[in-house]
Design goal:
30% helix, globular, 5 helices, alpha+beta, Aminopeptidase, 190 residues
């Protein structure tokens, strides 16, 4: 089996907040549900996430549930896509999150990913990101996908470059805000 996403129908009766969206060789990417709050809390409070992405103000389970309801679920409703929980096919062990974002701060759809320390260095982020880019291209028919990353986040930049993303420019969304490297993949290359 390749890393290309599989076309997959969710079985009838599956709760709408646990739908499988993308499947790859080793991974399943499914919608995030409120019961995933412990994982979201763990991802968003990881020191690397805070250093490279920022503090999202999620510091307890109740805040993680609010983050899921207000951000993740609203993206599914508004755009038909969002961030997905990444888990292993073999045992459903959660590894992190990966998916697509639409922000008010720029016109492009953005890929994002964050993996727990125990899931790093095993190719999971690359596999999930590759499958997500394929889904964006083949299912959502997106011609352009971007990624924002801290200019010093060399691991993420290398992963994105491996998928065919190239740095277009450095951007800043607020006068006192941080600089971000904006990388882009035209026509879904990757």
């Amino acid at each position: 089996m390749s890393d290309a996403p599989e076309a997959r129908l969710t079985p009838p009766g599956t709760p709408p907040d646990r739908r499988l969206v993308i499947a790859s060789t080793r991974l399943l990417l499914r919608q995030i549900c409120l019961e995933d709050a412990p994982l979201i809390l763990e991802v968003l409070t990881d020191p690397d996430f805070i250093a490279y992405v920022g503090d999202r103000g999620v510091h307890d389970l109740a805040a993680a549930q609010r983050y899921i309801a207000a951000g993740v679920h609203s993206s599914y409703c508004a755009h038909g896509f969002g961030m997905y929980l990444v888990e292993l096919r073999v045992n459903a062990a959660p590894l992190g999150i990966c998916g697509l974002l639409r922000r008010d701060s720029h016109p492009d759809v953005e890929i994002g990913f964050a993996f727990l320390p125990r899931a790093r260095g095993q190719g999971y982020a690359l596999e999930a990101a590759r499958a997500t880019v394929g889904y964006a291209r083949d299912t959502l028919a997106l011609d352009r996908i971007v990624a924002l990353t801290a200019p010093h986040n060399e691991r993420s930049i290398r992963l994105l470059e491996h998928l065919g993303f190239r740095c277009e420019r450095i951007v800043r969304f607020a006068p006192q805000g941080p600089d971000w490297s904006l990388l882009a993949s035209e026509s879904g290359r990757g």
